[in-house]
Amino acid sequence: MTDPVKIAELLFPDIQKTPAELEAAYPPRNLPEGARVTRFAPSPTGYLHVGGLFGALADYMTAKRTGGIVYLRVEDTDKKREIDDGVSAILEGLQSFGIRFDEGVTGTDTECGAYGPYTQSRRVEIYRTVAKDLVKRGLAYPCFCTAEELDALRAQQEADGALIRGYFGKYAKCRDLTDAQIEEKIRAGVPYVLRFRADGSEQGRVVFDDLIRGKVEMPENIIDEVLLKSDGVPTYHFAHVCDDHFMRTTHVIRGEEWIPSTAKHIALFKACGFRVPKYAHTPQVLKIDEADGTKRKLSKRKDPEAAVGYFSQAGYPPEALLEYLMTLLNSNFEDWRRANPDADIFTFPFNLKKMSVSGALFDLVKLRDVSKNVIARMTAQDVYACTLAWASRYDPDYAALLRESPEKICGMLALDRGGKKPRKDIAAFREVKAYFSYMYSELYEKDYTLPENLNPADAAALLEAYLDVYSADDDRDAWFEKVKALCAPHGFTPSVKEYKENPDAFKGHVGDVSTVLRIAATGRTNTPDLCTILRLLGEEEVRARFRDAAACYRAL
Questions:
Q1: Residues 162, 164, 168, 173: is their CA dihedral positive or negative?
Q2: What is the rounded end-to-end Cα distance, in angstroms, of the chain?
Q3: Same structural domain for residues 388 and 301?
Q4: What is the Cα–Cα distance from 360 to 418, expressed in whole angstroms?
């Protein structure tokens, strides 16, 4: 092009703004030294993905730990893949985990902050303003190649054995069109895209400091990338460069799959006259493939746990998933949590440099362990409230039972809670129903199976004898004394030690006697404190269950 200003006016007659005006409209942020500005920039193409939450958490923690700003930008230029209400799905998912942005999109048609619009489809004038300036400076040009011509180009590169494939150098047919040729095609309405005029060389190298991976070196960009598509919509590469600059992003935190594109992004930042941000490329979230035991990327298509909604439906506390993701984000998080068991997770001293450069392996077994610890730190009332909230959404019949007798389930949940070694038997709120099903006659399933060392006749005799002395008013000590008193008359010993020393002299010990009572009351051999269970069940229910069990054993 011999007169790029003329071509710029021909291509963008509607654009009157200048980059200088944009710089004035979006000035540098007034933040403390060292404060970082980060962004989470999803596309509204589906549910919130675990990998998305992983990245959002890194963005959020980086900004908050430095007194900076984290904002939400919606990258909606790919309208073909966008789904209805996709923005709301992302926002609701993030907010349920306590991640609330300082600026950005707040709803389908709402936002807050001085650096918007925060939705790319509403920033077209900004992109076109920068694009026009690039054309003016001879750094961008229109390309009129058809799909067939681009296919022919690729075939020629393959025939030539070209090591680099793409639109560049001698293969860039439209790079050196004359002003007259350009004007003729524009006047004729020939469709075109706008391309970047790359100035890299095949021998050149780009080096940048990745805050996670350290020094990264790669070939310079020589490809004349598309900036604006034929419909005027910007490509991701161009749009995010403009957005990150005018939203004054200091740190771009994104997945490692974007590393190969970094050279072209750096070239675009420099061509536009923008300061290049710091980069941090996070590892992918992986899982072990059950089919062959290999590691692979967590897949939206294959893996239900890829959606954060999966964990809500399963009844995991949002805090548990956050805690687990933090163990993947920073290797020292678990040590910090042990030293600060009650601290807010967002006070953790997050550091990008402590992120792994290899893939983050998502382990559901480890998540369950983390979740058990999280629930163990909750009060009985909180566990009840969370279980009720979960059941109200996913199991209405159980929710009705919970509302009828909150004291019953709260009493069970309160057992062994708190202290230095709290119980860790529940990993998800949906498990409460099955775990304590024996507390409700509607859910209780009889199972009178005895351990091998006990026989039905002895079990029946013990139950009948206990019914003669049972009192719903007994405290734990009084209850246990009555259990011990049952032992000798029925051939058992109240001393476990004595039984171990001379097992042939007894049918069993006091623990076996309590097991008979436990099975009759709950259908299980292992439960929390039996005395409390009997008290919460109530005398009428206890007597009915013990009579039924004794009759069953007598009939065998």
A1: positive
A2: 100
A3: no
A4: 32
Q: What is the pLDDT of residues 352-381, one digit of tens each?
A: 999 988 888 899 999 999 999 999 999 999
Q: Which residues of 268-294 are buried (b: 16+ CB within 10 A; e: fewer)?
A: bbebbebebbbbbbbbbbbbeeeeeee
Strands (E), 99-192: 103-105, 111-112, 140-143
- Quick check: is 350 in a domain? yes
The pLDDT mean for the chain works out to 93
On the question of pLDDT at 313 being above 90, the answer is yes
pLDDT in tens, 137-146: 999 999 999 9
Asked whether 101 and 69 are in contact (CB, 8 A), the reply is: no
Question: In the structure encoding, which two tokens stand for residue 360, read together?
Answer: 């983050």
The pLDDT of 261-278, averaged and rounded, is: 97
The answer to whether the beta carbons of residues 520 and 463 sit under 8 Å apart is yes
State how far the Cα of 517 lies from the Cα of 545, in Å rounded to an integer: 10
Range of the domain at 384: 380-439
CATH number of the domain residue 468 falls in: 1.10.10.350
Q: Residue 133 CB: number of other CB atoms within 10 A?
A: 22
Q: Nearest CA to 280 among 247, 239, 251?
A: 251
Q: Are strands 140-143 and 193-196 parallel, antiparallel or unpaired?
A: antiparallel
Tell me the CATH number at 294. 1.10.1160.10
Q: Which of 246, 266, 282 is the last residue of a domain?
A: 282
User: In the sheet that 111-112 helps form, which strands lie side by side, from edge to edge?
Assistant: 37-40, 69-72, 103-105, 111-112
* Same domain, yes or no: 162 and 267: yes
Range of lowest pLDDT (82-96, 107-121, 200-214): 82-96
Distance separating alpha carbons of residues 212 and 259, to the nearest angstrom = 12
Q: Are residues 339 and 417 in the same domain?
A: no
CA distance 279 to 211: 6
Q: Retrieve residue 430's tokens.
A: 């949906």
The closest of 132, 85, 97, 44 to 318, measured between CA atoms, is 97
Q: Are residues 11 and 159 in the same domain?
A: yes
| Pair 134, 140: CB distance under 8 Å | yes
What proportion of the chain, given as a percentage, has pLDDT over 70?
99
Q: The pTM is what?
A: 0.87
**Closest by alpha carbon to 492, among 519, 510, 515?**
510
Total residues belonging to the chain: 556
Task: Please state, in angstroms and rounded to a whole number, the distance separating the CA atoms of residues 497 and 315.
Answer: 42
**Residue 158 burial by CB count (10 A; 0-12/13-18/19+): exposed, middle or buried?**
exposed
pLDDT at residue 83, as a whole number: 65
